[in-house]
UniProtKB/TrEMBL annotation:
InterPro entries: FAM107 (IPR009533). Keywords: Coiled coil. Pfam families: DUF1151. The keyword Protease does not apply. This is Protein FAM107B. Transmembrane segments: none annotated. It comes from Patagioenas fasciata monilis. Residues 1-47, 84-123 are annotated as: Disordered. PANTHER family: DOWN REGULATED IN RENAL CARCINOMA 1/TU3A, PROTEIN FAM107B. It comes from the Eukaryota.
Length: 144
């Protein structure tokens, strides 16, 4: 069985004048791995996409004013604005009415709480009184 010496990169001093490519230049320094190519994107390569992109770049570079836009976006925006205006002018929906009632009720509760004012006693005294009442209720329940 014949054994071959391991492959080592050739240097110009060892070789016959340096015209033999070394192993490191053949693999481009990536450890011998083959680098994959990026797959083409059919959408970006389509003609319509390129034309649209070119038109967008052109209109952006020129800074076209809104009234110079295409007709369809202008019509759609006008329709949307008109519908919003009609909704605001019309009677409120059931949900809006319920939300307003709830909001008013919460405001009234806050006003009543602010008018009554906070209890001047510290909180720990209030808790202690509550515990005392619970113990008294338990004692009364045991006696009966």
């Amino acid at each position: 069985m014949v054994t071959h010496p391991p492959l080592t990169p050739a240097t110009p001093a060892e070789g016959d004048g340096g015209d033999v490519p070394s192993l490191t230049t053949a693999t481009d320094g990536h450890g011998g791995l083959i680098q994959p190519r990026k797959l083409p994107n059919p959408v970006r390569e389509s003609r319509s996409h390129r034309e649209l992109h070119r038109e967008l770049l052109f209109s952006h570079s020129r800074g076209l004013l809104p009234w110079h836009r295409a007709e369809l976006p202008r019509v759609l925006e006008n329709r949307r604005l008109r519908q919003l205006g009609e909704e605001l002018r019309g009677p409120p929906s059931d949900l809006e009415q319920q939300l307003r009632k709830r909001h008013q009720r919460l405001e009234e509760q806050q006003e009543r709480g602010a008018a009554a004012g906070p209890d001047p006693r510290p909180e720990f005294l209030l808790v202690r009184d509550g515990l005392r009442k619970m113990k008294a209720a338990e004692a009364a329940a045991r006696q009966t």
